From TrEMBL:
This is Short-chain dehydrogenase/reductase 3. The chain crosses the membrane at residues 14-34. It is found in: Membrane. Catalyzes the reduction of all-trans-retinal to all-trans-retinol in the presence of NADPH. Coiled coil: none annotated.
Length: 320
């Protein structure tokens, strides 16, 4: 290839890349503005032919997501969780809404069980087209207090399970160029927190997985296979019961129904990343540029540095 040809190709590719970057930024800001304006109604995709799987669906946000997305009348909702009774309760609510719903007990930390239950779904009902990875676990200990078993379990549920479900369902989505993988993360997957070592670490791992997944799907050039990651602040589900900051009225815990509505809104608009509440976009941006000493000072002023000390699930251990 001649040198002039190489230069022309590089110039063309640079201009195209610059165009895509600018277009993406403008589109992102427009969507953000439209979401706040009644003048621009949200355009939701049709899910009437979708089979939706929700993990950790027995209670909390998982149950609320199932109820919220059932309002849009999908073809079927399938619930996964570790215990039969809460799954049965969630399924009962969905049935009353006139949506076909099935549930299976499944421990997502066990890859063999995930693959087995995924095959069972495929054989009985067809391919899962929307997979909502909601299952999560927190122990709430410092690095030194964390037990090895707890660390491994948190990594399996909060991070490795996303590998299992993605490997179970992504191939069919790519083949059909239709699908959506959703991951319920946390603000602790963006910003660390003292006293939540295993949880924050595993959520950071999940965030890295999701970004890599998005890039790999882009390489496949499958425009109708979507990825969404949600980073909510503290939610009133009891998962972080007892956790308090110095100014609780300034940063109140989020209502589960509101969070579920925002999650479903993100799914139906094929949004890639959502932080809740909107103030967290600013907090995330600022903390990426502040020196670590500044972050420590802010944590101390707001009480974030010791907020996990009152966490109800925390183990009190003597240090020798």
């Amino acid at each position: 290839m001649r040198e002039s040809d190489t230069f022309l190709i590089l110039t063309r590719d640079f201009i195209w890349t610059l165009f895509v970057v600018v277009k993406s930024i403008i589109t992102a800001y427009f969507r953000s503005f439209a979401s706040l304006s009644v003048c621009f109604p949200r355009r939701y995709k049709d899910v009437s032919q979708d089979i939706i799987l929700i993990t950790g669906a027995g209670r909390g946000i998982g149950r609320q997501i199932a109820v919220e997305i059932a309002k849009h009348k999908p073809k079927m909702i399938i619930l996964w969780g570790r215990h039969k009774e809460p799954l049965e309760a969630t399924a009962g609510v969905i049935h009353l809404m006139g949506v076909q719903c099935h549930f299976m007990t499944c421990d997502v930390s066990d890859h063999e069980e995930v693959y087995k239950k995924a095959d069972e779904i495929r054989d009985k009902y067809g391919d899962v087209t929307i997979c909502v990875n909601n299952a999560g676990v927190v122990f709430g200990n410092t690095i030194l207090e964390s037990e090895s078993e707890e660390i491994l379990h948190a990594m399996k549920v909060n991070t490795a399970a996303h590998f299992w479900t993605t490997k179970a369902f992504l191939s069919a989505m790519l083949e059909n160029n239709h699908g959506h993988l959703v991951f319920i993360n946390s603000m602790l997957g963006i910003m660390g927190l003292a006293g939540a070592a295993e949880y924050s670490s595993s959520k950071f791992g999940s965030a890295g997985f999701v970004e890599t997944l998005k890039l790999e799907i882009a390489n496949e050039k499958k425009d109708n296979v979507h990825v969404t990651i949600i980073h909510p602040y503290l939610v009133e589900t009891g998962m972080f019961s007892g956790c308090e900051t110095r100014f609780p009225s300034l940063f109140p815990a989020l209502d589960p129904e509101y969070v579920a509505w925002k999650i479903v809104d993100a799914i139906l608009t094929n949004s890639y990343m959502v932080l809740l509440p909107r103030l967290m976009y600013f907090m995330s941006f600022v903390t990426k540029f502040l020196p670590i000493d500044a972050i420590i000072a802010i944590h101390r002023f707001t009480g974030v540095d010791v907020c996990m000390d009152s966490f109800h699930g925390r183990k009190k251990k003597k240090r020798e």
